TrEMBL record:
Residues 301-652 form the Beta-lactamase-related domain. The lineage of its organism: Bacteria, Pseudomonadati, Bacteroidota, Flavobacteriia, Flavobacteriales. GO terms for molecular function: hydrolase activity. SUPFAM superfamilies: beta-lactamase/transpeptidase-like. Keywords: Hydrolase. It comes from the Bacteria. This is CubicO group peptidase, beta-lactamase class C family.
Length: 678
């Protein structure tokens, strides 16, 4: 029998006794004990060879598992087993994501919540800063906070300079991140105590303690700390779940397992409001198999290896929880800049349902228009034209006889087939302020010429389905004429700001670093330059980058929020944007009997063999695809949101190999295959 450190033996004996003692007691006791065990046992596992007293550790962990099982659901299809132990007998519960998410969701404790500062609401009215205290990592906490709102990390060693920088923020989140070791008290230093007091006195503060809560006993008052959260450990999952709680994706359920000085007693813990915002968890916690989902990686990498696209972003959410979010490849085939989850893609025709359609639905919800409203009623410009009697239902269903598109660029070219000097300038001028490329500005009123071409265009004599970009160019014109605001302003004011879609914008170079934006194409036919941060679609470019059919740039996380809003039929973050009836009216296929699968603005599953989906999505599902290699799809019956973004058009938009290989559809198929069916 191999020798084992007597301390390790004693630990397991102690834990074995503790586990049995507390097995029938309150859940908060289990949480604190298990928190210590999960931290320590993982370290001990690396030191012990289990060839000797296997029966001893097996007995201990079997007891632990029984305790856990009695309190939480533990059921994963992906088992990670302890080396040297029969895999049919024991799982390594310390690394199971599904357990960890449930564990922290039930454990993280809110101790103060003055003026209901938690959860953070009204994102359009907030300016949020984050300040770190402590030496441990905080990456997952910060990155998750930034998935909910525009959270600015502020650093300065000088406390007065730090406060000067914080003065413009409405809320300051303080994260105390200590190196994990559940047996320590993490006594705050004098400087840290002084810093916390100063910041709390001068700001609206949410303080989050990723350490043993005993460290709080060093503070003599909590009167100035509006929100106080104890997350217990500085782990990846605890950081993610804590950020969820701050923004209301989950509510606080935790209770203190012991008293902290005279301020907080054992079993203290406040409940907070849950908002219907997207959260995060493991696949198993929403009834999906992580092993099956991992096949997505293989398909994405195959697409990149085959040069169908240089890079990809993918997100999958179910039941209001993001369970898969990954990026693959690089911005270009030079393999210099890796794709990050925060990168911003040209989403092409997804603009239709991500910018124009929600504003049209808002007009409909406010009863300013109906599906029977005609173009002549909506926009007097069409009065007397061959389009004056087209109604909104036909228009949105691509059933109005409009041409697929118009080559507007020909109107803007000179006889020598280059951008005409009449319409373009190399430098910005008063009447030439709309930019469509580096050193390329178009005359501001060219969009009026484009609308005149649309009004005068021919209509099909046959009543049939024909996909047309003109539909949403017309609707953009209607919205801007009706509201007096441009579409880029409308979508920010009505949706993006309050949804926390801080990475979404027309003309993104006015807001974001160019290196966050993968290029879409080397334009060798009109603009003659690399298109990076300028919309790929030429018609949208001629409108100055803001059009109803294309022009929006975004990332997978932001788009998932709006798709979740649709899935929740007009509600997100406990804010109602439009009624359930409005969503249902727009998610209806009005001409399915005639062979037209489209809803009112939304694309819908194929009626035959070929179409935009894997063929496995429900008929109530909806979404859209985009020319640059994008897709956003949601399924109410299975509560799934799926986002796929790429720049498959780079460096030259030739054959759409991504589409021909069914990459987006095959990934969607894997998503449905991963669902557990009882």
């Amino acid at each position: 029998m191999q020798k084992i450190d007597i301390k390790i033996h004693l630990f397991y004996v102690l834990f074995f006794f503790t586990a049995i003692t507390y097995a029938g007691k309150k859940i908060n006791k289990d949480k604190f004990i298990l928190a210590s065990f999960l931290s320590i046992s993982k370290k001990l596992d690396n030191r012990v060879h289990f060839n000797s007293p296997v029966y001893f550790k097996l007995a201990v962990q079997d007891t632990v598992r029984k305790v856990v099982k009695s309190k939480y659901r533990v059921g994963s299809q992906e088992h990670k087993f302890i080396k040297g132990i029969d895999s049919t007998a024991i799982r390594n519960i310390s690394v199971k994501d599904d357990f960890q998410y449930e564990f922290y969701e039930n454990s993280i404790t809110v101790l103060t919540n003055i003026n209901a500062i938690i959860p953070v609401k009204n994102l359009d009215q907030q300016k949020i800063a984050y300040v770190k205290i402590g030496d441990a990592i905080n990456d997952d906490f910060v990155s998750t906070l930034q998935k909910y709102a525009d959270v600015t990390v502020i650093e300065d060693k000088n406390i007065d300079s730090l406060q000067f920088k914080l003065a413009r923020f409405s809320t300051v989140i303080i994260g105390y991140h200590a190196i994990d070791n559940s047996l320590k008290n993490y006594n705050l230093s004098i400087d840290q105590i002084s810093k916390i007091k100063f910041l709390a006195r001068n700001n609206n503060v949410i303080m989050n303690v990723f350490a043993n809560p005993y460290c709080l006993s060093a503070l003599d008052s909590f009167d100035d700390i509006e929100g106080l959260i104890v997350s217990y450990q500085n782990k990846k999952v605890s950081q993610i779940v804590s950020a969820e709680l701050i923004f209301g994706a989950i509510q606080s359920k935790g209770k203190l397992p012991f008293s902290i000085s005279t301020h907080f007693k054992s079993n203290n813990g406040l409940s907070t409001e849950k908002l219907d915002r997207l959260g995060f968890t493991s696949a198993e916690n929403v009834g999906m198999d992580a092993v099956v989902l991992s096949k997505i990686d293989l398909i994405a990498n195959r697409a990149i290896d085959s040069k169908m696209t240089p890079g990809i972003q993918i997100l999958v959410a179910r039941k209001g929880k993001v369970i898969y979010q990954k990026s693959f490849g690089y911005h270009t085939y030079d393999n210099i800049i890796k794709v990050q989850n925060s990168d911003i893609y040209d989403i092409a025709s997804l603009t239709k349902i991500m910018a124009t359609l929600p504003n049209v639905m808002l007009q409909y919800d406010q009863k300013k228009i109906s599906l029977e409203s005609t173009l002549a009623e909506m926009a007097p410009l069409f009065l007397g034209s061959n389009k004056q009697n087209i109604n909104l239902k036909d228009l949105l269903s691509h059933y109005a006889g409009l041409a697929a598109g118009i080559p507007f660029y020909k109107e803007a070219m000179s006889l020598s087939k280059v951008p005409s000097k009449l319409y373009f300038r190399k430098k910005i001028e008063t009447d030439y302020s709309k930019q469509l490329g580096d050193s390329l500005f178009i005359k501001n009123d060219f969009s009026e010429i484009m609308m005149k071409l649309i009004v005068d265009s021919k209509l099909s004599l046959k009543k049939e389905y024909k996909y047309s970009d003109l539909t949403f160019m017309i609707l953009k014109y209607y919205l801007e004429q009706t509201t007096g605001k441009t579409l880029d302003v409308l979508i920010q004011d009505n949706f993006y700001k309050s949804l926390g879609m801080n990475n979404s914008s027309f003309n993104p170079l006015t807001k974001f670093d160019k290196n966050r934006i993968p290029p879409t194409e080397t334009d060798n036919y009109f603009r003659y330059q690399l298109l990076q941060g300028y919309v790929n679609d030429l018609s949208a470019a001629l409108e100055g980058g803001v059009s109803g059919h294309a022009g929006m740039f975004s990332n997978a996380m932001d788009l998932a929020k709006l798709m979740q809003l649709y899935l929740q039929k007009g509600s997100y973050g406990n804010q109602r944007y439009f009624s359930e009836k409005t969503f249902d009216d727009f998610n209806t296929c009005y001409f399915c009997a005639e062979g037209n699968r489209r809803g009112a603005g939304f694309d819908k599953p194929q009626l035959g063999k070929e179409g935009p989906t894997c063929g496995c999505a429900s008929m109530t599902s909806f979404g859209h695809t985009g020319y640059t290699g994008t897709m956003a799809w949601a399924d109410p019956e299975n509560q799934i949101v799926y986002i796929f973004l790429s720049n498959r058009t780079f460096p030259v938009a030739t054959t759409n190999r991504l589409s021909k290989a069914n990459i987006r559809e095959d990934i969607q198929k894997v998503i449905y295959e991963s669902i557990f069916h009882n």
